[in-house]
Fold this sequence. Notes:
The chain contains 16 helices and seven strands. The chain is of the alpha+beta class and 510 residues long.
Amino acid sequence: xxxxxxxxxxxxxxxxxxxxxxxxxxxxxxxxxxxxxxxxxxxxxxxxxxxxxxxxxxxxxxxxxxxxxxxxxxxxxxxxxxxxxxxxxxxxxxxxxxxxxxxxxxxxxxxxxxxxxxxxxxxxxxxxxxxxxxxxxxxxxxxxxxxxxxxxxxxxxxxxxxxxxxxxxxxxxxxxxxxxxxxxxxxxxxxxxxxxxxxxxxxxxxxxxxxxxxxxxxxxxxxxxxxxxxxxxxxxxxxxxxxxxxxxxxxxxxxxxxxxxxxxxxxxxxxxxxxxxxxxxxxxxxxxxxxxxxxxxxxxxxxxxxxxxxxxxxxxxxxxxxxxxxxxxxxxxxxxxxxxxxxxxxxxxxxxxxxxxxxxxxxxxxxxxxxxxxxxxxxxxxxxxxxxxxxxxxxxxxxxxxxxxxxxxxxxxxxxxxxxxxxxxxxxxxxxxxxxxxxxxxxxxxxxxxxxxxxxxxxxxxxxxxxxxxxxxxxxxxxxxxxxxxxxxxxxxxxxxxxxxxxxxxxxxx
Length: 510
């Protein structure tokens, strides 16, 4: 209830403001109109004083009978230029329009005098009142009407020839003229009232529309803010999904290597268990028993004579397991180094997240392939590398790697579901002068035509275990870096081609 009341009060205040603004604009425009009209009427009065006044007043236009001209020039100038100055210096003020109203009626009175009170000139008063009604202010009409009444009464009584054109005019004749003026005032007042009512209605409608627009704008801003937050959350979720996919591949490759490490460790343990330690102990015990007469034992005792040959054979038997152990230890060291490289590469991408830098497109592709190498071999995928010489790209490592890992993972899954030879081609080439293209093409299950326009939509996936984040987040990330991610396929069973375009570090390569 309080909110509704405050809204209504705000609308009323805004309506009043719009109404006053409309009125003020109308007053200023009307002031400027009368400023021009006053100058034209002043010039017209001078012309009438020169050409008409001598005829209607029976004056000769000579040096002794120029008082009509001087009246038109000086009195008309005072009447005209005072409102002109006010309209120029203080437009829109109440004083200005009331002075203009008085001056306009005085101009009519002057013109009536210069024409010798001709009836036709009296219509100038009615025209003046009509023009003054443009102010849409009944008070201006009231001021002008008072001036008309005073002028007609005074001149009708004391100088009837100046206003009625005859010295014998009846003293009550001014009442007839005033009556007609009052009748016009009635109609003009009705018109003004209707106009003001319409203006107020327009102000109310505009105020109401502004209020509705303000509410809509507020709602739009709220929704925009919500969409912005949702977009940020979506991007963050997509990025985390991409990071999770990279981490999954890292752990998968580390797990494969750890399997090899475990096999090597078991092999080393088995060979160590098979060492002929017991025989060595027996030889050592025998030598300890005959330590006091060792030369005689080795030269005269039958067992001692066989001992050197036995030691040679034992050494030969131990050298073969030693070689195997050394080989397994070398393999073990290589596998551990591979684990360190995979983890270090992931850490390197994580540290540089969110930063655009100059990168080698081929190196980026190789990093992504290294995370999949073991799975390609295990699934029998033939990997074809087609790398051209391309300039460096400007990209974010942390954004590019999940895109490439996801594309390679999708290609591997598409090939795993297809029969025949499984071939995955990765091409790197320059895209004109604008950027570099990284193409991942497979001869797998392909993409139906109706899905080509949907695969980049958030949440769209054809995999039972899929989440629909990979391609969507990849397309967003590519766009954020100034590139784009596109897909092509000739249909089901005819493979698919995904192209990642990245901008160059410099466009001055053509």
